[in-house]
Design brief:
The chain is mainly beta and 198 residues long. The protein is built from two helices and 15 strands. α1 runs parallel beside α2. The radius of gyration is 30 Å and the shape is rod-shaped.
């Protein structure tokens, strides 16, 4: 079956006219005129955008097609760019190295550390903190009062750990080497759990 040179599609923003990229311009123009003639009056007043596909058309050719559409009562508009896809989850600040003694990271959202938080280093986050290494320094999650914030690390042995203002000093759990360790707030105390990969 021969490919349609011009396809008319309905969208939320009006009509979209898709042009077959391998057809020559005169063929496209004739096909568009035939479609407008066969639907005379039906599309009157509709907003319409041209989508040339992989083969761009010149500004002059676009103007010719838009004038043709206008003569049939359509209203040419610029095509709407697709909305950017939203990925699930929330944004986080990414620190791509270990933090040494004296270094500090503060962020109003979540923080991810690709390394260790060494003794003497500090991390303060409005949200949760994920340390993909050993957490030996000072870490404060939920600094703005976010009680569901968590602190997760391969080893939780911080000098000080706090969630939403509730503090814990010293090691969290024995290390089994197979689990991430999670600190979270339950009622008014910090509890620790092992998070095993499934």
């Amino acid at each position: 079956m021969a490919k349609e040179v011009v396809q008319i599609k309905g969208t939320r923003n009006g009509l979209l006219i898709c042009l077959y990229p391998h057809a020559d311009f005169e063929e496209i123009k004739d096909s568009l005129r035939q479609k407008m003639e066969s639907a005379r009056g039906f599309f009157k007043g509709a907003r319409v955008a041209l989508h040339p596909g992989r083969k761009p058309i010149s500004a002059g050719q676009r103007r010719e097609l838009e004038e043709l559409l206008t003569s049939y009562g359509l209203v040419p508009v610029e095509p709407q760019p697709p909305a950017p896809a939203r990925l699930p989850g929330e944004p986080a600040r990414l620190v791509r190295h270990s933090l040494r003694s004296g270094q500090q990271v503060k962020d109003a959202g979540h923080v991810v550390i690709l390394g260790d938080v060494k003794a003497g280093a500090e991390v303060t986050a409005g949200g949760s903190i994920l340390v993909l290494g050993r957490c030996l320094g000072t870490v404060r999650a939920g600094a703005n009062g976010k009680r569901d914030a968590k602190i997760i690390a391969c080893l939780l042995a911080p000098a000080l750990l706090a969630i939403a203002g509730v503090e814990h000093h010293g090691p969290a759990l024995p290390v089994d080497g197979k689990s991430l360790q999670v600190a979270q707030l339950e009622k008014d105390r910090i509890v620790f759990k092992n998070l095993r990969a499934t």
